[in-house]
């Protein structure tokens, strides 16, 4: 059977492999709108849009048509040595138009991890070119997620992505996670918490030396670490401190970008302007693998000068700007615009967040949180003290299995149950998703 072949031959990413050998895979056979169907025909609401990414849903024929046509016309060409092709040029132009003002240049990779690895290298390259070889450290946050390759995985602030992989492997300092519920202290207000985080940032810069710190990277809202909206005033403060110390600000918008938070980009929700931005996932609704790095013009200019000095900018991937992936991205962004899917996320924010917040009364829910069309409920052993379960992740696993029975797929991040449905979801479908979540939580008690 398919399940037996999977158990015999696949090493699944991000999986407890021994448990997988026991339980076998959930084989998804097809998709339709916000739904997917397993190989036995059972229907699920895909409450996480795959991996936070299938914005236009699972049956957008226009993307299949564009990919097919592009494959017939020019299935592959590269972008090395001044070569180009229309889809990647048009997408770079489109992204420069869509993203906030200072971002003018696009560099393409196939994944968010490669993009963040590339950003580290670009920033190092830039600072070497500027004669500041010491300015190389990155600041990141505990529970931030930036991917799993050597540099990106180092920026990630989750123990499971570091332990026994010998990460971090680049100079990175992880700052306190900006999640008030878990990292706020007894009696501290949210404003005090923000002030403490900003004081920490200033203290780290002072002790390490601003001349050694190149950049701070962060997701506007930490997503894969548990859907953690930042405290009020956090990003404005971080931006102010970075500017004062000549530290670049990198917004990792791999999940927050393209309308997820109810604004086109997450940085706009929280009122800051990055020097560099990482984009992926909803850029193609994950129909094709693609990521983009957006750079401000001054950064580009330094890199360009150095490429002339050294002969070339010696970095790039076989699939950088892949024509099928970039053609699909252009069509996907056109669909999002035509159907006003960013607006849909903003319009449904109220009903989606109210649905989530209604679970806060449940005896095992410590916090129900989120913004736009993304959210999570955090399960705890004891509500008043916020005490987590002794065996972290067990309750999440049980909830996930019940969710499947109820026809709902969400992501259990430890004991945090994350929701991030396709951006095409309707109000009625949000109601149905919440009803399935409600039944799942009821059965958990
Ligand atoms: N950055 C963020 C914010 C992400 O959420 C992810 C993936 O979830 C990545 C980077 C890494 O992307 P990829 O899995 O495509 O390497």
From TrEMBL:
Q: Please give the biological process terms from Gene Ontology that the record holds.
A: biotin biosynthetic process; gamma-aminobutyric acid metabolic process
Q: What class of enzyme is it?
A: transferase
Q: Which UniProt keywords apply?
A: Aminotransferase, Pyridoxal phosphate, Pyruvate, Transferase
* PROSITE patterns per record: AA_TRANSFER_CLASS_3
NCBIfam families named among the record's database cross-references = PRK06105.1
What family is reported?
Belongs to the class-III pyridoxal-phosphate-dependent aminotransferase family.
Q: What is this protein called?
A: 4-aminobutyrate--pyruvate transaminase
């Amino acid at each position: 059977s398919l399940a037996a072949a999977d158990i015999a031959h696949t090493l699944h990413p991000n999986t407890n492999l021994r448990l997988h050998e026991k339980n076998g895979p959930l084989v998804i056979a097809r998709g339709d709108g916000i739904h997917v169907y397993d190989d036995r025909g059972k229907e699920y609401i895909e409450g996480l849009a795959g991996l936070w990414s299938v914005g236009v849903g699972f049956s957008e024929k226009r993307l299949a048509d564009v990919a097919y046509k592009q494959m017939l016309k020019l299935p592959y060409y590269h972008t090395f040595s001044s070569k180009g092709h229309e889809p990647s040029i048009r997408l770079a132009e489109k992204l420069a138009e869509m993203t906030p003002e200072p971002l003018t240049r696009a560099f393409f990779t196939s994944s968010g991890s490669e993009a963040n690895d590339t950003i580290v290298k670009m920033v190092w390259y830039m600072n070497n070119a500027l004669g500041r070889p010491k300015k190389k450290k990155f600041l990141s946050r505990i529970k931030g997620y930036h991917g799993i390759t050597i540099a990106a995985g180092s920026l990630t602030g989750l123990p499971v992505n570091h332990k026994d992989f010998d990460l971090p492997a680049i100079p990175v300092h992880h700052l306190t996670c900006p999640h008030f519920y878990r990292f706020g202290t007894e009696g501290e207000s949210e404003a005090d918490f923000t002030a403490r985080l900003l004081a920490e940032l200033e203290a780290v810069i002072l002790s390490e030396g601003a001349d050694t710190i190149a950049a701070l990277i962060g997701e506007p809202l930490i997503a894969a670490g548990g859907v953690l909206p930042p405290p009020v005033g956090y990003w404005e403060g971080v931006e102010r401190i970075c500017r004062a110390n000549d530290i670049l600000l990198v917004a990792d918008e791999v999940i927050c970008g393209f309308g997820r938070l109810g604004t086109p980009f997450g940085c706009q929700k929280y009122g800051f302007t990055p020097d560099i931005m990482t984009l992926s996932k909803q850029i193609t609704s994950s129909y094709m693998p693609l990521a983009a790095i957006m750079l401000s013009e001054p950064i580009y200019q330094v890199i360009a000068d150095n490429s002339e000095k050294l002969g070339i900018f010696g970095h790039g991937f076989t699939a950088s700007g892949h024509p099928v992936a970039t053609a699909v991205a252009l069509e996907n962004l056109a669909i999002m615009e035509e159907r006003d899917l960013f607006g849909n996320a903003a319009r449904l924010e109220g009903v989606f967040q109210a649905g989530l917040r209604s679970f806060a009364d449940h005896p095992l829910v410590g916090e129900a949180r989120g913004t736009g069309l993304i959210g999570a409920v955090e399960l705890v052993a004891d509500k008043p003290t916020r005490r987590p379960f002794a065996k972290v992740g067990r309750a999440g696993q049980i909830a996930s299995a019940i969710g499947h029975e109820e026809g709902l797929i969400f992501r259990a991040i430890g004991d945090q149950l994350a929701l991030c449905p396709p951006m095409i979801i309707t109000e009625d479908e949000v109601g149905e998703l919440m009803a399935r979540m409600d039944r799942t939580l009821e059965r958990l008690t």
